[in-house]
Amino acid sequence: MPDQSGVEKKGFLNENKQKPVTFLRVFNLQEVEKKGVEIKGWETFDRCPDLVLLEGYLTPANDAFLKRKISQANGNGETSDLR
Prior knowledge:
Layout: E1 4-12, E2 20-28, H1 29-35, H2 44-47, E3 52-58, E4 64-69, H3 71-74, E5 79-82
Antiparallel strand pairs: 1-2, 2-3, 3-4, 4-5
């Protein structure tokens, strides 16, 4: 069984709805289980943002733009870009 999984939702990068993307959140299944969180979809991580390891989006051309959520590791809420 993989240690990481993800949730996604369709959306747009801009308010004009001209740039469609798939928003992504990646999380560690063991951490979710440890905290007793039931994953019902994207909104689960609105309530539990500390469980998100990576967050970003995927373009229709399959270009991925992700930020590592460092807050789990060092508690300061910083992020770093991954491309």
